[in-house]
Structures are given as C-alpha cells and as structure tokens.
C-alpha cells in the first residue's frame, strides 16, 4: 500500500489534504504530523511511498527535514516540498532534480501536479 507522510505545521491544511487523499485515492494510506520533530521516527521506518514537507515550519524547517529524510534513506524522488512561496523562490532553493517536486500549496494549478503523483501511487498500490 502507498504510504504518504505529510509534515506541515498548518493543521487545517493537513486535514484538508489528507481528507482529499482519503476521498479520491482510497488505496493510499496517509499519516500527518504538524510537529516536524515528531515526524522524525516515521521517516526512519523506510516504508514511505511519498513524503510531503512544508518548507516553513518552526523547530525544523523543510530544508532540514529534507536533509534528514535523504540521510535516513528516503529517495529524493519521493519527496515533495510545499510552500506558500512563489515558484521562482522554490526553484532557486530546490533546483530541478533536487526532489520530486516543489509546489506552492495555495495555487490551484499546483493541485494537478499532486493529483498526477497520487494517481501514480494509487496505480502502483493496485498492482
């Protein structure tokens, strides 16, 4: 089963996104964490199909979480960085190839990219 971990200190955003995934991609399992420090053990388990990380968070920001995740063995192509910042800023800090995607979490057009990723994971979960 495709397991997704969402790390974002915005509780409303995590609820909305996880609810959306549950509704439209029922084969995917979603875990959310609003405190990045509490997410560290989940990243060490090695069973994640996808890691969604907010760039701006207290205690540990998305850059530090990204480094921790890759050092824990999570493939960079299974990590999506989310932020309220514009695309230019995001691509400057996470150039193409650094991770699977960098997305502005408030732009409606960016939802299409997440849907493509979730669709792919759901198809893999079926096979």
From TrEMBL:
It holds the Pfam family Response_reg. The keyword Cytoplasm does not apply. The modification 4-aspartylphosphate is found at residue 54. Keywords: Phosphoprotein. Residues 3-127 form the Response regulatory domain. This is Response regulator.
């Amino acid at each position: 089963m495709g397991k997704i971990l969402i790390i974002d200190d915005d509780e409303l955003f995590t609820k909305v996104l996880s609810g959306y995934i549950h509704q439209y991609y029922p084969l995917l399992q979603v875990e959310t964490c609003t405190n990045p420090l509490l997410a560290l053990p989940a990243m060490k388990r090695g069973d994640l199909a996808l890691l969604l990380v907010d760039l701006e968070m207290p205690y540990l920001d998305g850059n530090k979480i990204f480094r921790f995740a890759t050092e824990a063995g999570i493939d960079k192509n299974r990590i999506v960085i989310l932020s309220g910042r514009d695309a230019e800023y995001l691509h400057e800090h996470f150039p193409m190839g650094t991770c699977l995607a960098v997305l502005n979490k408030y732009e409606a057009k960016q939802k299409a990219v997440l849907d493509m990723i979730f669709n792919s994971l759901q198809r893999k979960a079926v096979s």
